[in-house]
């Protein structure tokens, strides 16, 4: 009886051992998708996407999916072949096809695209992270092998967000944690967006985000520079703001407002102009109760329609140097601020490279050395903080067209990475 009991006990122990061994073997062979160094990061930080425990040389489809603030779904996919160890590492392995090809570590994110044409990934609010679901799929069966979620934060711990409605100011103030003092930046957007401002606050800047158009562009007959000067004054009154002046960050239509502030408001000490014009555009500009600039003429007959349904707008603006258009030209030669000009050679919205070249030559002619310029050959108009979805075309905002922005995707993304670091360095140097 005792022997039979012992034999039964041994059998049970062996069965249990085998079951545990099989379970451990199954767990050790389970496919894993990892986001390194962590799955939760800032919007402007890269992540390493890595899949392990695949079969040697197994072909998989990597997919990404995200939804913008309007509920529009954006997705991307790329095909990869695992190495001999059964690993796919987007930092070193090339995509064989799909939304992009070649080695593109952040390709799944910047190639996110909506099914409908002319869609911009709307992420203007800072409170909620940009959430991207990344998954690995069996190439033949399509089933999900592994999945992970990347939370990309705009607002860091301790950064305060304060909506501001004071006088003519209608914007959002972002302040870093700590006592300060912090350098101050006025972030001008054509339409209100908190993205750049929140990300700069994470880097140690006090930033007020404002937009050029608080109402519909078609309802705007004139713009007052005084309103933006109020924003500068507001920043300088903040208890955590230090330094002798304020920086201005701008792109597109907002860039000519930034140039005008640099020329007329002494408190502006540093200005970043990105893919804009050297003249005032869209509507006349007023300052101290009178008009200081007319608007550069826009010729609809020079707009070029493309097969995609988007329009090339860059040739529709009249030459600001022409005799009948000079009243729109901004006198940047009288600016005391440090100026950073940034132009994309493949900008299809503005002739920004030509405008930048003219301003550089004019400043040299006046023996000025308070400027530097950067040019990106393969980039388009929409230079933004890096790793967001690349946008080829969408509504122009200032004109009733689906605008073609230009740019070659991977070259455009590389320009965004470089420029974002450049902007921070520029403000740190000149706003100390």
Give the arrangement of secondary structure elements.
Elements: H1 2-28, E1 32-36, E2 40-42, E3 48-52, E4 59-67, E5 73-81, E6 88-89, E7 97-98, H2 107-110, E8 113-114, E9 130-138, E10 144-153, E11 160-166, E12 169-175, E13 182-189, H3 195-202, E14 206-211, E15 223-224, H4 225-237, E16 241-251, H5 253-264, E17 268-274, E18 285-287, E19 290-293, E20 304-305, E21 311-312, E22 338-344, H6 352-365, E23 371-376, E24 393-395, E25 402-404, H7 409-430
Parallel strand pairs: 2-10, 13-14, 13-16, 15-18, 16-17, 17-22, 22-23
Antiparallel strand pairs: 1-3, 3-6, 4-5, 4-9, 5-7, 5-8, 9-10, 11-12, 12-14, 18-19, 20-21, 24-25
Describe this structure in words.
This protein is of the alpha/beta class and 432 residues long. It has two domains: 33-153, Immunoglobulin-like (Sandwich); 160-430, Rossmann fold, CATH 3.40.50.1820. It contains seven helices and 25 strands. The protein has helices at 2-28, 107-110, 195-202, 225-237, 253-264, 352-365, 409-430; strands at 32-36, 40-42, 48-52, 59-67, 73-81, 88-89, 97-98, 113-114, 130-138, 144-153, 160-166, 169-175, 182-189, 206-211, 223-224, 241-251, 268-274, 285-287, 290-293, 304-305, 311-312, 338-344, 371-376, 393-395, 402-404. The strands form six sheets. It has an eight-stranded mixed sheet, sandwiched between helices. Strands 2, 4, 5, 7, 8, 9 and 10 form a seven-stranded mixed sheet that branches. The longest helix has 27 residues, at 2-28. It is globular, with a radius of gyration of 27 Å.
